[in-house]
């Protein structure tokens, strides 16, 4: 169900203030007219493909059908379309970036949108401005256009535009980017291969980032022409030393590239091995045998600084040794990402900023000081959001009892936020794992002693464990349901 910002805000008013509200109450909360409220309610109901989710009740006002809202939220229409000029331009940019440096007819790119020549001209200007930020150029030859620039910058632009978590979803390939299910399954098998070699799973968001990186590479090979940047082939002494020190990770990258060469029937540039190696190095390693074993003095200093400053700002002490180590294990690869401009997207960012505005602002404040003090590249809001979750976790950490599984379609973004929210509301619960329904179905025997499953998607998996469908941000209504369920267990 696709909703505008205003429509989402109206839904949030019901969740925050009560399931039944009058038009006047909604208007006052939203600071709009009652006429706008009626119009917005109508649009929300029209966007739902399972019937009205906001019902009008005589003498009471409007009531949000919470069950139906959750069902509509997790149901994706097969006919979803691009909405708005920004989404349109981003989709066209992705097509051009994947096919670069091939030239494509302008008419072919824009024909499905039925736009005037003036609007198309304006789109091309905006697209050129966006590409300039990535040192890329939109080149036009008569009625054809193409994107030119280094492979490194093309990948960065694609990574910014693409929704990495959507790539994980099984219906994404056929409905949106038109990458075959065979490719998606192969990339999934590569990620599983990496995890086996690491003898451990790769935590979110690094698993999503690596998946996205390989996905983009496959798409570039399928649709465009990869010309390795000669400069990228030359490694500096620090990079050579890194390869020697973490040879096991580099060999894993080599093995993955060998599999890709066979699958794509092409010999990929040697630089691709190092690119993947960078993503592995910049990920948080849980395996003690492969974990980055060189203690970075700068990372240690920054960890201590963050812990000390946040302790003061939050009025609590992040002084447990396990917490400091936990934070250090995130900050060390974070510094490598900053140095090498590796982007990790945070699909939880808007929810984190909304749910934990004070802690996010505090982390942002400390982050700005750290950036200046240690002469770092700017820490993005995406990275600040991940850091925020660490301090939310430290604040809410208490011994747990009941064993709970958390699931979403991919086992990544939405379930991580849900994990934090559940831990806050029910500190007595033990959250055993955060995973996808697909991963659960492959090894259900691993989760025999689970008391409750919380999921953001409708599960079709046969199960004996009690299951509750909840919102990804875990609202007060969800909290009541879980409390009721726990009371009955």
From TrEMBL:
Q: Where is the PRD domain?
A: 178-290, 294-401
Q: Which CDD domains match?
A: PTS_IIB_bgl_like
Tell me yes or no: is DNA repair among this UniProt entry's keywords: no
Report the residue ranges that make up the PTS EIIB type-2 domain in this protein. 402-489
Q: Which GO-annotated molecular functions does the record name?
A: protein-N(PI)-phosphohistidine-sugar phosphotransferase activity
A Pfam family assignment: HTH_11
- Return one Gene Ontology term, BP aspect: phosphoenolpyruvate-dependent sugar phosphotransferase system
Q: Which UniProt keywords apply?
A: Activator, Repeat, Transcription, Transcription regulation, Transferase
Task: Note the PANTHER family from the entry.
Answer: CRYPTIC BETA-GLUCOSIDE BGL OPERON ANTITERMINATOR, TRANSCRIPTIONAL REGULATOR MTLR
Protein name (record): Uncharacterized protein
């Amino acid at each position: 169900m696709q909703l505008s910002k205003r429509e989402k805000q109206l839904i949030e008013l019901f969740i925050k203030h009560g399931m039944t509200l009058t038009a006047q109450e909604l208007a006052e909360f939203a600071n709009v007219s009652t006429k706008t409220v009626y119009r917005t309610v109508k649009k929300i109901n029209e966007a739902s493909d399972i019937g009205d989710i906001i019902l009008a009740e005589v003498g009471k006002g409007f009531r949000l059908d919470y069950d139906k809202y959750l069902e509509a939220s997790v149901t994706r229409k097969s006919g979803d379309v691009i909405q708005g000029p920004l989404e349109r331009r981003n989709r066209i940019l992705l097509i051009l970036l994947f096919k670069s440096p091939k030239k494509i007819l302008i008419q072919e790119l824009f024909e499905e949108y039925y736009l005037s020549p003036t609007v198309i001209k304006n789109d091309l200007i905006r697209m050129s401005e966006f590409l300039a930020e990535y040192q890329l150029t939109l080149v036009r030859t008569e009625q054809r256009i193409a994107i030119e620039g280094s492979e490194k910058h093309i990948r960065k632009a694609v990574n910014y535009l693409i929704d990495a978590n959507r790539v994980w979803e099984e219906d994404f390939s056929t409905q949106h980017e038109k990458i075959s299910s065979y490719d998606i399954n192969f990339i999934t098998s590569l990620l599983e291969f990496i995890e086996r070699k690491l003898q451990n799973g790769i935590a979110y968001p690094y698993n999503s980032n690596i998946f996205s990186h390989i996905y983009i590479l496959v798409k570039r090979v399928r649709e465009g022409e990869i010309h390795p940047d000669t400069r990228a082939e030359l490694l500096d002494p620090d990079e050579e030393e890194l390869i020697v020190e973490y040879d096991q990770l580099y060999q894993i990258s080599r093995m993955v590239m060998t599999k890709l060469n066979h699958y794509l029937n092409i010999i990929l540039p040697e630089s691709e091995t190092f690119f993947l190696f960078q993503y592995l190095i910049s990920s948080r390693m849980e395996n003690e045998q492969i974990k980055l074993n060189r203690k970075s003095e700068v990372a240690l200093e920054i960890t201590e600084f963050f812990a000390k400053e946040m302790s003061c700002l939050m009025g609590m002490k992040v002084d447990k040794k396990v917490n400091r180590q936990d934070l250090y294990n995130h900050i060390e690869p974070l510094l490598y990402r900053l140095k090498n401009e590796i982007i990790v997207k945070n699909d939880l960012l808007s929810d984190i900023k909304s749910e934990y505005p004070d802690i996010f602002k505090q982390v942002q404040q400390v982050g700005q000081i750290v950036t200046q003090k240690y002469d770092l590249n700017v820490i993005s809001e995406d990275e600040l959001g991940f850091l925020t979750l660490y301090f939310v976790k430290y604040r809410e950490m208490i011994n747990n009892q009941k064993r709970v599984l958390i699931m979403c379609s991919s086992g990544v973004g939405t379930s991580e936020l849900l994990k934090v929210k559940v831990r806050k509301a029910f500190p007595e619960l033990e959250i055993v794992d955060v995973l996808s329904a697909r991963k659960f179905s492959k090894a259900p025997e691993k989760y025999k002693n689970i008391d409750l499953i919380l999921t953001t998607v409708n599960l079709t998996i046969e199960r004996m464990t009690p299951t509750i469908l909840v919102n990804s941000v875990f609202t007060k209504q969800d909290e009541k349901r879980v409390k009721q369920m726990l009371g009955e267990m």
